Amino acid sequence: MRIVSLLPSATEIICSLGLADSLVGVSHECDYPAQVATLPKVTTSLIPETASSKEIDALVRERLKTSKALYSLNQSALQSLKPDFIVTQALCDVCAVAEEEVRAVVCKLPDNPQVINLAPMTLAQVFESMLQVGRAVGKEEHANFVVKAHQKRVDEVVLRSKQMIKNPRVAFLEWLDPPFSSGHWTPELIAMAGGIELIGRSGQPSRTLEWREVADAKPEMLFIAACGFNVERTMQDLFVLEKVTMQKEFASLRPDNIFVADGSQYFNRPGPRLVDSLEILAHAIDPTIHPLPTHLQPATKVNK
Prior knowledge:
Elements: E1 3-5, H1 8-16, E2 23-25, E3 43-45, H2 53-66, E4 71-73, H3 75-81, E5 85-89, H4 99-106, E6 114-118, H5 123-136, H6 140-161, E7 169-176, E8 179-181, H7 186-192, E9 196-197, H8 211-216, E10 221-224, H9 231-245, H10 248-251, E11 257-260, H11 274-285, E12 300-301
Parallel strand pairs: 1-2, 1-5, 5-6, 7-9, 7-10, 10-11
Antiparallel strand pairs: 3-4, 7-8, 11-12
Helix pairs in contact: 5-6, 6-11
């Protein structure tokens, strides 16, 4: 069995199901688990590495107008890998190779590989995506076992959250310049962790905000996991907002706590590590009730 993954979350799903040895190609962004780093890359990014957050946002908006993705597919590389299965997504119009491009390329491949298209909007649908992949490749029983183990961890967080005396008001941001609300599965993760999401809505896409809207929500906690950015890159944007831009609305924010997490590895990848994301978030909300598993690093607390 030969599998090509066109997005990081699919790669993580495939590996979580014990199929890492069947992976023959991945996207340029696939970096977890570490063993996939040496696999052939079948996609490239059109985003300049030096682009600022504002420039990336402008590029995304321009691409949305033309229904073009920010990534391109290397047809010759894909053809040489002779996949039996190609796992892709239809969730985001710009965050992976466009679905129509994938299908156009697949039609030209001689072996007619099966395309597995994932489009989860909630945590339950992420788990269903794992089962979907398992069914497609003949590993349904193992996929069920893996999903049940992840659901058990989720249930344990939810049970502990019921012990909380006070549920903090949380504003979760997926981008900073301009600010974006949380969306999709993240608001429900916040609720499971014992927080109250003030702006984002479960099962709905994230949306562009004004800093005034964030300030008016009066969050007690500001949690930031910028899509595709690690902690260090997100902290750079925070520095610009605090020291350079000095936006009045941003300056008026007075949350009790500000946390930054790795949005590249967690929260924005609809795969098995959303459970890790939940545990990181829960620990930040109330570390006395939610101990952090030893394999995880806590979110970074920002000094105000």
